[in-house]
Structure formats: structure tokens, C-alpha cells
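Q: My collaborator sent me two sequences in one message, no labels, and asked for predicted structures for both. Can we handle them in order? The first one she listed is below.
A: Yes, handling them in the order given. First sequence, followed by its C-alpha cells:
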Amino acid sequence: MRDAREKYEANLPVSERISRFIDAYPTLNTVCCNSDLFVEHNRLTGSCEMGRREFCKSHGLSLNGEMTVADFIDLTAGEYGGEIIRKLREAYR
């Protein structure tokens, strides 16, 4: 079932993926669990799990930690899928 959901979400238009993210995290100051953002990055950009795990390791991030949406955007806007993350930033404006 998880694979089917992931495939469905991967085929949604970027605007819909961004809209769903904003519905779940309504402000840039919303504090989120890193583990949730780990999943959301995949939903937004299609990033692979291995790449996300390596990113966390190289940035010293724990999936047990927390950060704001603004911090998430700042941290990932220049990385894989950054063009979508930058669109996410614009959508909050």
C-alpha cells in the first residue's frame, strides 16, 4: 500500500504537492519533526531514501530532532530538488 501511495504522490503536479505541504505545515515558523520532513522531502522532490540519509549524515541531522519549515527550506533549497523547494518558499509568500 505504501508503494502505491508513493507512486500516486510522485505523479501529482508540483503545485499540488506544495499545496499539500502547506496544508500540513501552515507557516514558515511551524516546528516539525525532522523525520516528518525527511518523508516530505521525498513527497515534494522524489528524492531517494539513500540520498536523504546521506544528506542528514553529512549535515549532522538527527531524524529525532526538530526544525522550522523556514529552516528546512533554507537547508534544502540548494540541494537535490532545490527548484521545487524554492517554489515552496515562494508559495509561502
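Q: And the one she listed second?
A: Here it is, processed independently of the first:
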Amino acid sequence: MKKYILKRGVLIAIEGIDGAGKTTMVRRLYDQFSRIHYKVSSFKEPTDGKYGQKIKKLAQDGRDNISVEEEMQLFLLDRKEDCEKNIKPALDRNEIVLMDRYYFSSVAYQGARGLDKSIILRENEKIAVKPDIVIILDCAVKIGLTRIRYQRGEVPNHFEKEEHLEEARKIFLKMEAPYIQRIDSSRPEEQVFEHINHIITGILIPFSKEISDQPDLFSLDINNDESIYYKN
């Protein structure tokens, strides 16, 4: 099996409404690229940090006591911490970095609450690393909610209300940029994965270098490494 390393880090964001299949795809991509010896890290937002915990509490308890502006600030603080502690160091180590949600979700979800989408994007791009590729997984809201209820066995939280998800999906569908690819995630899981894998493999090729299983004979320092000699 061929093995590869990256010449520089590559940041890949997997986006979409709740129930679109982001976490499943990130897990499968992590396994796929780890098997061929790429260094891979995956991170999920909101994080488990102090700001991420506050966001998760809002999802469970409700958002009645917080303005949309305050909510956006929590996401910005959580993302800034994630970039500084996790994302940037992994990219500096020349890793593939897989994001299970990133700032495009803030544009969609806070935009669905009425904030100016261009302001959300601008504020996030002040503190966040711009991704090399964004994969938006798209499916009907009813499909996403069905997956949450019956595949995860969960009750939809306060961020997963049907009307709110419909508005967030509309915003995701309007996102257009050279680095954005949209995939129909209502299809069977294997088809969705193969499509994503094909796209990302194409992105990685220019930044990849094949490595050999065999040591380079002429890279050994025979003057300083006595371990290379056989001893009787």
C-alpha cells in the first residue's frame, strides 16, 4: 500500500444542517486517510471548551435569555480558542485537519436568526483559518430530523427546530465559492462517502508526497550511529 505525507497542512470543513451526516463522514474520512499514513486530526464545533460548553447548554436549555449577538460572540470565542489550541498547531504539523462544523455553520445558523450574514462571515474570518475545501452536505430538513430521532435516538435540541433548520438550509444552499462543494447527503452513506473521498483526494494530490516503506540507505549517518552495525 502506498503511503503519503503532506508538504503543508490542509484544512477541510464538513458542513450542513443537523442530521446531514457530518459526523459520520468525518469519522470515515479520518479512518480512510489514516490507513494510508497521512497524519490526520479531526475537531468538532462547538468544542468541549468553556465557551463550547455554554453553547451546548443553550442547545439543551433554550436561547430565550441570550441575544443572537451574544450567541454569536460565544461561537467566535469558542472558535478562536479552537483555532489557537487545535487547528493551527495541527496545520503547522502538516496534517489533514477535518472539521465537523466550522464557521459556515455560524453564517447559516445565526443568519437564520436574523444576523447579517456578511458580518458573521467577516468577523469569523478575522479569527479563523480559511479552509482549503468546504463540503456542504445537503438533505431535506425532515430527513435530517428523522435521522436525529431514529438513527441517533435523540430528541432534537433547541438548535434543531424544524423552522430554524429550514432557514439555515436555505442559507447553506446559497453559499457559493470556488472552495465550496455541495453534495446530496440524502443518498446512501457509501455513495456520499465515495463522492467526498474523490473530491478530497483531488485536493490533497498537489500537497502530497509519497513515502517508501524502505529506509534510505544513504540517509544513514554511519559515522554517528553505531546501531547500524551488526554485533557478534
